[in-house]
Amino acid sequence: MRSISVFLILGIVLSASVFSTSTCFAGFSEQQSLFGLSAGPAALGDYDNDGDLDLVISGNNDGIFYTKLYTNNGSGTFTENTSTPLVGVQSGSVAWGDYDNDGYLDLIVAGHANLFVPTLKLYHNNKNGTFTENTASGLPTAVDECSVAWGDYDNDGKLDLAITGDIADIRSSRIYRNNGNGTFSHVTSAVFTGLNRSSVAWGDLDNDGDLDLVLAGVSSSGNFGRCYRNNGNGTFSTISTFTGSANNSIILGDYDNDGDLDMAAVGGFSSSRYGKLYANNGSGVMSEVTSAGLPAAYWPGMSWGDYDNDGKIDLAISGNEDSGYVSRVYHNNGDGTFTDAAAGLTGVYSGCTLWGDLDNDGDLDLVLSGYTGTAWITKVFKNTGTVYNTKPSAPTGLSFSGGPNGEVIFSWTASTDSQTPSSGLSYNLRIGTAYGKDDIFSGMANLTTSSGYRRVPAIGNAQKRLSWPVKGLSGGTYHWSVQAVDSAYAGSNWAMERTDSICIISGTVRKPDGTGVAGLSLSYGPGLTAVTDNNGYYQIFVHQGWSGTVTSTPSGYNFVPANRQYSKISSNQTGQDFTTTIFGNMPITFKNLRDPAIAWVDVDGDADLDLIHNGYWLDGYYTRTEGRIYRNDSGVFNEVNEPALAAAKGEFDALDFDGDGDVDVAVIGESESDYDHTGIIALNDYGNFTSSISTAGLSSSSQDLGDFDNDGKLDLIACGAYTLPSSITIPATELLRNTGTSLSKVINSIVDVYAGDVEWADYDNDGDLDFALTSINSTNTMIYRNDGGTFTNLNLSIPDGYKLSWVDYNCDGLDDLSICTTSLVYLYRNDGGGAFSNVASFPTVSTYVQSPAWGDFDNDGDPDLAVCYHDATNATYRVAIHRNDGTSFTELGEETGLANAWGIVAWGDYDRDGDLDLAVARYGSVQVFRNNQSTLNTVPSAPTGLSATMTATETTFSWNAAADAQTPTAGLTYNLRVGTTPGGSDVFSTTADPQTGLRYVPEVGNARHMLSWKLRLPVRTYYWSVQAIDSGYAGGAWAAEQIISAVRISGYVRLYDGTPISGVAVQASTGGTSTTTDNNGYYQIWVLTGWNGTVTVNKSQYMFNPASRSHTDVVRTSPRARSQI
């Protein structure tokens, strides 16, 4: 009896440390009973670096919350360390991690503190068995219903922290980045669904060299489970979803030894328990293994570990099943199924299970805690098995290289192990600044080469890979090694330490204005790239003595210098800057056509500019012509064959010829040979050219559409040559008037020319279109003034040339003239009154491909010049950009990126990013160069003060000037639209979107610089508006639509018996229109509002009653008039 009493007294006094030798079952025996806790987490880790695993455990005992730290005595038994009072929590999380890389494990504790106060505390290991709270960490301090996990998500060698749970009473899931100075910062770019009563785990699910994240718990929308891929840039994206809930546990492990991390998930509620195994397909996508046989339990504890040393990870699970509280060990059968090993453990729920070789005897022991239904327990079980684990071999073949995105890649060859297959091993990397240290990248293991003892029972920090990228290293010398970790978490000896010296090549990629370019890739070897940050800065890590070339080759950019070469570098290379050229060549393939023409046109009306192209197909010498549309689909050009556009040695012009709201294309040039010519207007039905109107078929030709007679219909002027089979060349200049259904030649005294150019402009601002004409076979360039449809040559002394362009280069509201001769482009300033002065000249080439093009590429408000010329110094042709600096021009050099481009040029903002891009076509190729400048254009304001007046013969539309942030007001042009229906442009078309004002062609407005425009229109009601166009050809918003009204007088002309009379002439007196009756005898005529006059009818052999009708102050539609014989 006395002995029993003594035992009971000892049991009471030593309840936290007494040993038990009773055997629970074959294979495990209870080693020790510690202070019982439930509803709390636990973690094993060698915090005192003495070579055995210690224990921290939190939870509830009889309504009071504790966190207890136990030191391993070296035999797998524990003594409580009370030197540091740790905050007691439940419904939370604890985790070991060396966050400051000082070689000692630090501790984080989070959850409900006593009185249910949300708490998170970070404890720094003082290396003497004590801990100090880090109160300046920047981590949230009010956290509960939570889970935390350490993991280096950004590969910089410093442990970051994932937290999921209630943060300040708000469901949250966050990552906090380790700043390296004891503080942490919330990674706001990493956005996850907020959870509580949750679990979190890090793991490289897709084996791409960075840690992905798994979350499970309860969101505001209900149960939640998701795997997130680390995108490597601070953001995460969903890989796959799975069953999640409150009261759950998720753990990652390679149960099938196929080299990737799988997942077990257990949890739920009493009515919806689950236990699921998920297999990873290798890319992070999880699929349920329905044959696994895992228990359905809630308030679970769960842990992976190879308890029987057969090389396959097994499961320990506790929780509340249908049968009650259980604690079980599930043996991995190796075929995707698990079998209850009948361990006979005390059943608990709301606790934890932990594997770890507590006594260092070569097999995994077990820590179990929770609530049995009547008591709180924490028990240590010794594995009494007789199969002992051996460590894997050390990895070999260590190597080092620079990696993509400015990383350093540490690599090795696979280890072997007597128990765990090579594919089941993980690896643990350490990096230090001196021999035997890991102050850069901690392995959380004994650093002695012959030991490698793991201070945490977990897979290695390099996961399942044979290489691992590390970011953020500085130039210098590093000492590093790697060890293998098997399925029982035994670490191999460290590989023979390697010493490598790193050199950093760094610099900034900038635009010409100095703005850094973010997200550009620089290549420095096969598969090796670095990417610029938000400021354009890049870093490349290479080994000392590296030789190679750094090249920046992203799509749409050219660079100065094109690359940088290095030979056996021995130190950091700073200031290795690149400057992007203004224009970058886009990798677009176009048809190889000879003698080409190109133009930017929004053919399909989808709000971006397409490119049209024609010429001779290069399958022989002048055998056939082809036409192509390159449809712009968000910057991707798709080729469409369009026979209607086929020609060569000519040019395009594109406007809305038929007033139906889309852009038609005038085509002129040779069709199949020197003496087979074409001239048509291809009528567009929103991308389909189904019909055409014939124009002037000329070779070596030019053309321009414009309404020279102000009737609202586009006419055409063209020049070129008729070449006969006898090789006789006949120059021709043809003026064609639009009759509404066809183009009719106008007899005129205009000089006939060929191999030249013609272009409309209202140079004298009198409200009608004049034109300039030049040719190599004329004496001078001719300017013809429009005097009401009659054209008069000004007979100015301006040299002849191949090409010409009107441009208001000085933004004074007067059209100036540039002429491209055999060697120079001359610029003539319009001085007003028909006088022009030569103010500049630019070199060009002596072929017909010069085609000078004006456009405000730098968005400073004045137009600049692009022209092809011969670079005599380098014996090459190239496109030169002459920047307009207001009072002078500056020829830009290699910064343009156009050194290898030459041919016909055309401006157009194809990517709609607010600056003009450039297309260049020559013999056999077309190139598109994207404008990469930072200064973007803004559209002009809408004109105001709209008014209109109508007479019997013409209507005048007027407005006030608009304003623009770049182009001076005098430099703006205007685009007038007039229609017979709201929003319509069937009377005077604009080639612009009637709602947004977006331009379908990069051209000046149809009303030029004028603030009023007259049209010879019949009297009726019209709807009209106007927009401003700037020097970058951007159209502003339309002014509020206006209506100018007329009154319709209508009726029928009939016999007395009611029979209609057709063909009767109906005429209104002064100020009205005339018509004839239709087959129903119906007529309608239009008169001005307030009109006074008489309507008369007439037809041979008929008399009418009344003979006429008089009207006074007509303000609404007149009643019908009847007639009689």
Shape: elongated
Low confidence ranges? 1-26, 1119-1125
| Helix/strand class | mainly beta
Contiguous helical run count: 1
* Spatial extent as radius of gyration: 42 Å
Number of strands: 82
Largest sheet: 6 strands, mixed
Q: Give the distance, in angstroms, between the N- and C-terminal Cα atoms.
A: 146 Å
Helix content: under 10%
Report the β-strand fraction as a percent range. Answer: over 45%
Task: Look at the structure and give the mean pLDDT.
Answer: 90
Question: Could you explain the architecture of this structure?
Answer:
- This protein is an all-beta fold and 1125 residues long.
- It contains 1 helix and 82 strands.
- Strands 32, 34, 35, 38, 40 and 42 form a 6-stranded mixed sheet that branches. The chain has a 5-stranded antiparallel sheet with strand order 1-2-29-28-27, with no helix packed on it.
- Strand 69 and strand 70 (925-931) form a beta hairpin.
- The longest helix is centred in the first third of the chain and has 12 residues, at 2-13.
- The radius of gyration is 42 Å and the shape is elongated.
- The chain starts with a helix and ends in an 11-residue tail after the last strand.
- Mean pLDDT is 90; it is low at 1-26 and 1119-1125.
